[in-house]
Amino acid sequence: MTDAAGSDLRILLDSRGIESTVERVAADVSADHNDGVVLVGVLRGSVPFLADLARAMSIRVRIDFLSITPYSPGTGRVRLLKDLDIDVTGRDVVMVEDIVDTGLTSEFLSAQLNRRNPRRLSVCTFVDRPVRRAAPVRPDYVGIGIPEEFVIGYGLDYEGRYRNLPMLAAANPAVLKENPDAHIAALYRF
Ligand code: IMP
Fold this sequence. Notes:
By secondary structure, the protein is an alpha/beta fold. The protein is 26% helix and 27% strand. Helix 1 packs across helix 2.
């Protein structure tokens, strides 16, 4: 697809593709957790996925969120901005992410969650991009695996934009760097 800026946006999953992907993941998570789960969303990119996932699940679900500061280049240090409100001791917890890229977010938050002594902790991500993995993280539930491409939509942003794009699309980061709004027209087309 070519948008108003003349820059290519490649659709990886349209809204139907997202729906069937979410249904598959929800069925897998439900089948593995008869006693129900606490879904812990990593703010903010996981919000659309978590909302759809929770509604597609056929088990008892509670919802909570975590948020961390972005990695500061060089230091690799992060800080919790928002902690859990629910006590997850002895519960099955599924951490829900938008994308697992380097895996550093997953690794840090898994360690935080494990300190709360859940009965079981799993990682569920809508997108898995293993090519840049820096931490030994293997998500338990994956919506779609992708090669080395930058993606936007369905919660994934570029500088805060495009989270509400109702599809997952591969974008050219050089185009977005030049003009972060380059694909805004796509928002009005779907
Ligand atoms: P990590 O590298 O696995 O720790 O991922 C950190 C965060 O970077 C993710 O939760 C996303 O918010 C963001 N991120 C990584 N890759 C992309 C992408 O292709 N598009 C949008 N955000 C991304």
